[in-house]
Amino acid sequence: MTHSNNFAYVSIVTSKNYLVGLETMYLSLLKTGTKIPLYTLLPTKLVKDNCETVQKLKGEGINIVEYEQSVAIPNALVENNNANGDNRFNYTFDKLLIFGLTQFDKIVFLDSDIYILQNLDHLFEKPHMSAMIAGKSYPGNEDWVDLTSGIMTLIPNNELIQQLEATIPIVIEKKGSCGDQDVLQEYYSEWTKHPELDMGEKYGIMAGYADYYEKVLGYNYSGDINNSKSVAIMHYAGEKKPWMQHWSFLSVLKQEIVLSLCKMTGLRNTKQIHLEYKHLIRKAKRRIGVK
Length: 291
What we know:
Layout: E1 7-12, H1 19-30, E2 38-43, H2 44-49, H3 51-60, E3 63-67, H4 75-83, E4 106-110, E5 114-116, E6 130-132, E7 148-154, H5 158-175, H6 180-187, E8 205-206, H7 210-215, E9 233-235, H8 249-265, H9 270-288
Parallel strand pairs: 1-2, 1-4, 2-3, 8-9
Antiparallel strand pairs: 4-7, 5-9, 6-7
Helix pairs in contact: 1-9, 5-6, 8-9
């Protein structure tokens, strides 16, 4: 593939609690050998309040795109999300701003809570709104057919932001509480009729389902890009993130010993992947000066 100077990996962080996740994701991206840059949207207030950490992120090679105007959501939606215990969704709508980054010809969007295990540059060859359906093969999720917004290939278009914002009231009427993913699923309601847009589950294995995918469904960590069951991305979705945990010295020592033993076997398994991610989190915290 010929890499365009106008290709970019893009992420977004709206809370300081996710800056460590961003750095960890970036370190895993670099390990894949990509030459395509990562750009991250950060609200101006977050930049000002965490200027030292943001400067370190820039020093690491992450390109920062500041924005002041958030995507407006109705107060009724905020109240609905809060009442349903989904208040974290109130901060996800700014993800829709990535569709307005028209300085790029094509974007591969990456959530900040993922661990990248394979080179993803080939995803830029995929058509607009290529994504995957996270967790659809896990028991009980058989009716999951809509796109997941954690990893997407897209072509920016300023008009899309307005159209997506106009879709928010429709989703509220249907669901009451919602997040950015619900809006995208509503707007791209025909997505399910286009199987060519489905990247495949390997591009976003949910961490909580990973054992099942490995032991029952035969997914692996061989690193083979062409193998549809060789995991490319582990997604640590959920409210509580691994980098928000505190590990004592003894806990870290135990993790490192187990990780070393796993590496000696020559085979990567789900346990080893989780330990690798924790190891990378600790490295990320040191690099950007976060305890």
